[in-house]
Amino acid sequence: MNKINSVSREEWLKARKDFLIKEKEFTYAREKLSEERRNLPMVKIEKDYQFNAESGRQTLSELFGDHQQLIIYHFMYGTDWEQGCPSCSFWADNFNGIDTHLAARNTSFAVTSNAPLDVLLKYKKRLGWNFNWVSASNLEFGTDFGVSFYDEENDGGYNYSDWTPEGEMPGISVFIKQDGDIYHSYSTYGRGLDMLNGAYHYLDLTPIGRNEKDLEYTQAWVKRHDEY
Fold first, then answer.
1. 173 Cβ partners below 8 Å, 6+ apart?
2. Rounded to whole angstroms, how far apart are CA atoms 199 and 93?
3. 101 in the same domain as 69
4. Number of separate domains in the chain
5. Is residue 54 domain-shared with residue 104, that is, in the same domain?
6. Residue 169 belongs to a domain with what CATH number?
7. CB 130 within 8 A of CB 141
8. Is the separation of the CB atoms in 163 and 189 below 8 Å?
9. Is residue 19 located within the same domain as residue 109?
10. Is residue 226 included in any domain, yes or no?
11. 171, 148 in Cβ contact below 8 A?
12. pLDDT tens-digit profile, the chain (228 residues)
């Protein structure tokens, strides 16, 4: 943060109104970008993906429930991990309760990971979450949607780049169902997940902000919420 610049209320109000112009420009640009995102082409899903859920085996189609759309968060939790990713846990703290609001707009929400279901449910109970969390029955789903990197022949790098990490990465994928067919409309990774973290955007409103520049890496401060 720069040194505090203390001014009169009148000067502050003028600066705030000037900045509001830029904020509105950003809002309009974001709305335009969201419209373009909605108009992107889609690809039909041909595979019969299977998941282990609390209610038993479920297909990707069944994760939709009675809704036309489905949003999936790819949570980093490897098959032999003792705990889930701290950063994904930070994001997941934003998920409780959103399923009801999404359902009101014909959209289901689910979280998928590669860890066994019993491990996921234990971790979910520990952190007090109530969203739908399912286990991929193999690494195929995560591999196909660019978040699981265990195969040397994995098609493509992370976030549509040439960089191929090892193991697990986070992401969000969106699907829509029409006439019984499922289509993949969108996926985002890396900084594309940023807008889904409410705590970060509250911090962005403050003078100090996220205060991550001097850390070893940006999220070095993040812990699971029961570990602070």
1. 71, 72, 74, 145, 184, 186, 187
2. 9
3. yes
4. 2
5. yes
6. 3.40.30.10
7. no
8. no
9. no
10. no
11. no
12. 678 899 999 999 999 999 999 999 999 999 999 999 999 999 999 999 999 999 999 999 999 999 999 999 999 999 999 999 999 999 999 999 999 999 999 999 999 999 999 999 999 999 999 999 999 978 899 999 999 998 765 567 899 998 989 999 999 999 999 999 999 999 999 999 999 999 999 999 999 999 999 999 999 999 999 999
CA dist., res. 174 & res. 227, Å (int): 31
DSSP track, the chain: -PPP----HHHHHHHHHHHHHHHHHHHHHHHHHHHHHHTS--EE--S--EEEETTEEEEHHHHTTT-SEEEEEE----TT-SS--HHHHHHHTTTTTHHHHHHTTTEEEEEEESS-HHHHHHHHHHHT--S-EEEESSSHHHHHTT-EE--TT-SS-GGGSS---SEE--EEEEEEEETTEEEEEEEE-GGGGGGG-HHHHHHTTSSSTT--TTSSSTTTT---TT--
| DSSP bridge pairs for 65 | none
Measured distance CA(2)–CA(88) in Å, rounded:
31
Q: What are phi and psi of 189, to 5 degrees?
A: -145, 175
Instruction: With 0.90 as the threshold, say if the pTM is over it.
Output: yes
**Domain enclosing residue 23, as ranges:** 9-38
26 with 68, same domain: the answer is no
Query: Is 223 part of a structural domain of the chain?
Result: no
Are 105 and 127 found together in one domain?
A: yes
